[in-house]
Structure formats: C-alpha cells, structure tokens
Specification:
By secondary structure, the chain is an alpha/beta fold. The protein is built from 22 helices and 14 strands.
Length: 490
C-alpha cells in the first residue's frame, strides 16, 4: 500500500459504502440547488445544537470529561491489540462466538452464512453505522434475506429507497409531510387518514414493526462500545426498538468496528456521560442495553460478534491520523458544521458524512478514493469545539490535504497549474520589493466588484478560484502604504 505522510493512499478491497459516485464539489452543487433540503437541515441542526448546548452547560466538569474521553481513547488505541484479544477471550468464555473480518466483503460473507444457518429469510436490525458501512442489507438481499430496519429514521430511509444523510438522524433531510407520503405509499396497512402529526407517524411505524419484532428469530446489531474486561457489548438508543431486537430473537449477530472497544467498565462510565449529551442533547439515553455472552433461558441463545477492520488498522498505523478512530459517532460535529448544514450528508458519498466523515472516510478507503472530502470544510474549528473526545478534525483535514497534494506531485513529473501558481506566489512573497509590486498590480482589480465589494469572476486560469470562492475587491490603500503615510520612518 502506497503512503504519503504515513497515510494510506490506496484502498483495501471491499470497503462497502464508503465511496460516492461523484466528488464532493459536484454532489454539493446538486444539494445546494434544493431549497427544501436546506430548510430541513437548517431547522433540524439548530434544534439539536440548542438541546446539546443546554445539557452541556449543566456540567461544570464538561471539559474534564472531554479530556478524560480523549485520554482513554488515546491509551486504548496504543494497546488496541491487547484489548481486542481480551474482548475476544471474554466473549468466548461467556458462550459467544467471535469472528474477525478484514473488510466489508468478508464481514458480509460471515453474517450471510450465519443467517443462512438459521434457515430464516427475514432479520430485524438495530440502527448500525457499521452494517451500513459494509452494505450488509444489500448483501443479505442478494442472499434472499430481508433485513428490516427498526429504528424510526432508518425505517423512513429504507421505505423511501433513500440513503442515510446523518450519523444520528439518518432521515434529517426529510420533513414530516415527506415522511407521511412515504408511509402512505410504502407501509402496508397504514390508515389512509394518517396525518403528519409526529405521534401519529410514530404510532404507524410502531404498529408496522410490532409484528416483525414478535416473529423475528434473528437480529443484527452494531455496538456503541465493547468492554474488554467483561466481554460486554453496549447499544444506546431512544426508541426501545434496540431493546426488542436484543432480547426477543433466538440469535443475535453484532458487527463492531475494532475501534469501539474500551478497556474497562469505568472507562464506559465516561462515554455514557459524553455520548448522550453530544448526540441527542439528553442527560442519558432512554435505553442503554448491555449484554454479555449467552444466558441460558434469557435472551438470545446464540450470540456472534463480528469484529471488523475494513481499513481501521491502516488508519491505526499513522500515529497522528489514528485520532479519527477516537470517534464515538455522536454527530456533534455535523450539527455545528456550516458546510454540512447546507449540503447534507448525501454529498459526502459515504455513510460517514460531515467533518468526521471527511477525515475518517479517506483514512479507511485510502486518500486516492476520496480525495475531495478533506476539502469539504472551511476549517472554522467548530467541529473540534463540539467533539466530546477532542478530535482535532481541522488539523487532520489539513494533513490529509497535504497527503493528497504530495500524492499528485509524485504521480506526475509535470507540475500542475496550481503548483505553478503557488510557486509563483511563494517567489513573490519572499522578497519585500516583489510583494509591494504585486500589491500595486492588484489595484487593477478595483474596477471589478465596485457594487458588491467582491469580485465575482476572473478569467482563466484564475477562474478556478472564483468559481468556488468569494474574492474581496482589493483595498484602495494597502497596509504597507498606510503605515508609510501615517508613521513614515518612525
């Protein structure tokens, strides 16, 4: 695998739903042309931000909790192999079965084989980013198995033939009227008089899912955390659908990314305080389900844990880039990101959208496959301020951009127009006389943008800049000239 700055540039095989069919700028332009989408996103993200701010403000020790979470994650990543081996031993010791999957293809094959062994053709699912990452639903469908999503937002996405656009709220791009239309069109037996009142929509979904919960023999889940010292797995959710999936079926299959392990129960305590406040704006999740192996006569009698790599060890190899693996999937960075708020999640082409997706996805797939994502940011820093485990997303984005530039430079001996432009700018700015001359030459631009104060378009090749960025009109007087006039030689 080729690397630049210690980062992988080529993807492992079978990475699943981590690549888009278009680069981010093209997909973003499509999203920006949908005013209803922007209204839906703006309303939803503002609501979540306000709820989060209120519950975070209640904690005088919030910053200490963030630092504790960051420290636990860093220490865990440094000894990840040891913690995963202990988790494996404890799961086996308590009646579970552990499987290791190097990529999405292998993980899908394992789960499909396990489901086939039970003889069922329908499974219920707890909301899981990891199974979305590997494209498990599609793999099961190809094997003749229906995977029924039970989380309300995931159900909306599934019935609408849509894709998730948010880590926490997959249907954030839909409003109530759109959801009502999806239910009337796709949900068997729904009352034609259904309105878009939230309670009515929730009750319709509950009635639709209840029969499926009761007849399900196999459930598939992800895991928010895996506790190495006991082999326990944890799922937090707000609707109770997870509790139904985790307790009623005979067989439970959990797919967990390698980075989700925590060493001890005391470590879990920290994250169960950070996660709900950062994600749903709650002091604690309404449902926190923790299970350990198999208990005779109580809950699923077969438990399988599939531990997924899918590019994670490649990211772990980079001592700086591995910080992206600290993510606990709270989505706080999405809700404060000005880019995400305007484009939504589909523009990122990955199940992991927003700032953390722009960092994590290229590290899982290799920079070559998602080269545009690190540029999907204004580098304002709001994501770092919101992150409950203090991931320095802006610095990681800059690092990935640098790796992309180095990769392109190594791939071609002919310098690009961008490289020539930057070299010319560097030559100009390293000598005061040349820089002063360039300032005077820029006055030509004052004839443009006289009304708005901004230059809307420049001729090629400079048009590549103004096509995606605002360019302020040059000032009538530079700072250098002002200083000379006001201060002289003093």
């Amino acid at each position: 695998m080729t690397t630049f700055l210690g980062l992988p540039t080529h993807a492992p095989r079978g990475v699943g739903h981590l690549r888009g069919d278009r680069p981010f700028p093209a997909a973003a332009r499509t999203a920006l042309a949908q005013p209803q989408l922007r209204r839906n996103l703006g309303h939803a993200t503002r609501t979540i931000r306000d709820k989060r701010a209120a519950v975070v403000a209640e904690r005088d020790d919030w910053e200490e909790l963030r630092r504790a979470g960051a420290a636990i994650k860093a220490a865990t990543m440094a000894r990840l192999d040891e913690h995963l081996e202990r988790l494996e031993r404890e799961v086996w010791a308590r009646g579970g079965t552990v499987h290791w999957a190097c990529d999405a293809t292998e993980a899908n094959a394992i789960v499909t084989r396990l489901v086939a062994a039970t003889g069922v053709h329908e499974v219920v699912k707890v909301k899981s980013m990891t199974t979305q990452e590997i494209g498990l639903n599609e793999a099961l469908e190809a094997a003749g198995v229906v995977a029924q999503e039970t989380d309300l937002a995931e159900l909306i996405v599934q019935l609408g033939g849509d894709l998730p656009s948010h880590i926490l709220v997959p249907a954030i791009h839909r409003n109530r009227a759109e959801i009502r239309e999806i239910f009337l069109r796709e949900m068997p037996g729904v009352d034609p008089a259904l309105t878009d009142e939230p309670r009515g929509l929730a009750m319709a979904a509950r009635a639709f899912l209840r029969e499926r919960f009761l007849r399900a023999r196999v459930a598939i889940s992800g895991a928010n955390f895996g506790v190495a010292e006991t082999g326990g797995l944890a799922v937090v959710e707000s609707e109770g659908n997870g509790r139904m999936c985790l307790t009623l079926p005979e067989t439970l299959i959990t797919v967990m990314g390698l980075e989700k392990v925590v060493p001890t129960w005391r470590d879990l305590e920290v994250f169960l305080q950070l996660l709900p406040r950062s994600s749903t704006g709650e002091r604690m999740n309404p449902y926190t389900s923790i299970w350990t192996g198999v208990t005779p006569g109580d809950g699923p009698q077969q438990f399988h844990l599939v531990l997924l790599d899918n590019g994670r060890t490649a990211a772990l190899a980079d001592e700086i880039g591995r910080e992206a693996l600290h993510c606990i999937r709270c989505s706080a960075c999405l809700n404060v990101c000005p880019v995400y708020e305007r484009t939504g999640g589909h523009a990122y082409g990955s199940v992991y959208p927003g700032p953390i997706g722009a960092v994590l996805t290229p590290q899982l797939t290799g920079i070559e496959d998602n080269a545009s994502l690190p540029y999907a940011s204004s580098l304002c820093g709001a994501c770092f301020d919101a992150c409950p485990v203090r991931i320095d997303i802006p610095s990681l984005l800059v690092r990935l951009r640098a790796a992309h530039v180095e990769e392109r430079r190594a791939a071609s001996r002919i310098p690009t127009l961008e490289q020539l432009t930057m070299a010319a700018a560097g030559w100009t700015m390293t000598e005061p006389g040349r820089f002063a001359a360039a300032e005077k030459a820029s006055r030509v631009g004052r004839v443009l943008g006289r009304r708005t104060g901004m230059i809307g378009a420049l001729p090629p090749p400079l048009s590549a800049w103004t096509a995606s960025r605002d360019l302020p009109r040059p000032p009538a007087e530079s700072f250098r000239e002002w200083w000379a006039r006001e201060r002289g030689n003093r």
